[in-house]
């Protein structure tokens, strides 16, 4: 099969198609003929050599796929054969075939194209587990999400609208501000021209928000804490401005704030299976009804994976970038 499997770390140019054997599905796994594979920021970090695949994961990048199940490993429900699925995987998506744990597959409803389905799992699992589980966001809560037009940010806006959250997002330009509002954010703040702490206070009438989903880190963390209401929750999912921060402990005590965070890729299969089952119950009915769709930026053929990464690194994209296997 054709796959992207760079021999060494480097710039986008290392992403050239090569021949690789079709991976055999092991017990509990399915083999998927990949129609489309989502591109995520962690793939860029992996390509640069800063985010190695966890032990046992393929070196081929790609954390989410959609396509047809064409072979089954042992102990897999035979009804899965021939069905259209999308799946969260620990790697291997940038290829014509990929294996996925059957317990991490979701059926693709008619309302979703393969490209749309491939763009969902990574951000859906990440936002669901961090915003709704770790941060306990519930209907009526106001939440602050940085990177409002990112893959993650657009999913947070989409889920926020489906589950009755008031979303405030930050973005780095007026064009992205308009895009975030068009996608459905309740408020969008251009952090380059406005102080997001002051704006969040203003929007919430001085109360602050219930949760912050933070992909920025560094000096944003103490500022994020200022945006939280009493008993507010701060969830770290990335550290683009720095992996450490100085936080005001007495303020955390006085206002009973919670600081937490997580990474999805390294979690074990049992956890991912539980989340899949939960998403199938709570979120997937919206996908079947045509109410959950990813915000799409662009697609690129697999052979142009380098251009897909360049587009992500330039940072002008809004929503998801997806590779198609054609
Ligand atoms: N913990 C996990 O399990 C997990 C899982 C998936 C992804 N992630 C992380 O989540 C982040 C988003 O992933 P993605 O695939 O959605 O990537 P993406 O679409 O490339 O988004 C990155 C976003 O970060 C924003 N950004 C970058 N530098 C910033 C800064 N200094 N200040 C404020 N905003 C900044 C950019 O917004 P502007 O252009 O508006 O500045 C951009 O929208 C990545 O950092 C990724 O590693 C974590």
From TrEMBL:
Keywords: NADP, Oxidoreductase. One of its GO terms (molecular function) is oxidoreductase activity, acting on NAD(P)H. Residues 10-323 form the Enoyl reductase (ER) domain. InterPro entries: ADH-like_N, ER, GroES-like_sf, NAD(P)-bd_dom_sf, Quinone_OxRdtase_PIG3. The keyword Iron-sulfur does not apply. SMART domains: PKS_ER. PANTHER family: OS02G0805600 PROTEIN, QUINONE OXIDOREDUCTASE PIG3-RELATED. This is NAD(P)H-quinone oxidoreductase.
């Amino acid at each position: 099969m054709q796959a992207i499997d760079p021999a060494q770390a480097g710039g986008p140019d290392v992403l050239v198609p090569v021949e690789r054997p079709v991976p055999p599905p092991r017990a509990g796994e399915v083999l998927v003929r990949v129609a489309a594979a989502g591109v995520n920021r962690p793939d860029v970090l992996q390509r640069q050599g800063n985010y190695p695949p966890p032990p046992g994961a393929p070196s081929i990048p790609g954390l989410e796929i959609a396509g047809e199940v064409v072979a089954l490993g042992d102990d897999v429900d035979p009804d899965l054969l021939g069905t259209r699925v999308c799946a969260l995987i620990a790697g291997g998506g940038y290829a014509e075939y990929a294996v996925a744990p059957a317990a991490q597959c979701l059926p693709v409803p008619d309302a979703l194209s393969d490209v749309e389905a491939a763009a969902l799992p990574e951000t859906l699992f990440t936002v669901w587990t961090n915003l709704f589980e770790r941060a306990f966001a519930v209907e009526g809560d106001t939440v602050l999400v940085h990177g409002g037009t990112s893959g993650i940010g657009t999913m947070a806006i989409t889920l926020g609208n489906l589950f009755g959250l008031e979303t405030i997002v930050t973005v780095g330009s007026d064009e992205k501000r308009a895009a975030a509002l068009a996608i459905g954010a309740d408020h969008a703040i251009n952090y380059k021209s406005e102080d997001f702490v002051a704006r969040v206070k203003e929007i919430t009438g001085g109360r602050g928000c219930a949760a912050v989903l933070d992909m920025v880190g560094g000096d944003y963390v103490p500022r994020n804490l200022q945006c939280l209401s009493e008993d507010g929750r701060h969830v770290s999912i990335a550290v683009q401005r720095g992996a450490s921060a100085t936080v005001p402990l007495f303020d955390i005590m006085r206002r009973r704030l919670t600081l937490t965070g997580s990474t999805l890729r390294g979690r074990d299969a049992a956890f991912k299976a539980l989340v899949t089952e939960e998403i199938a119950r709570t979120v997937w009915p919206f996908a079947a009804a045509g109410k959950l769709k990813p915000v799409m930026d662009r697609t690129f053929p697999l052979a142009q994976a380098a251009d897909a990464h360049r587009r992500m690194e330039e940072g002008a994209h809004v929503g998801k970038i997806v590779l198609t296997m054609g």
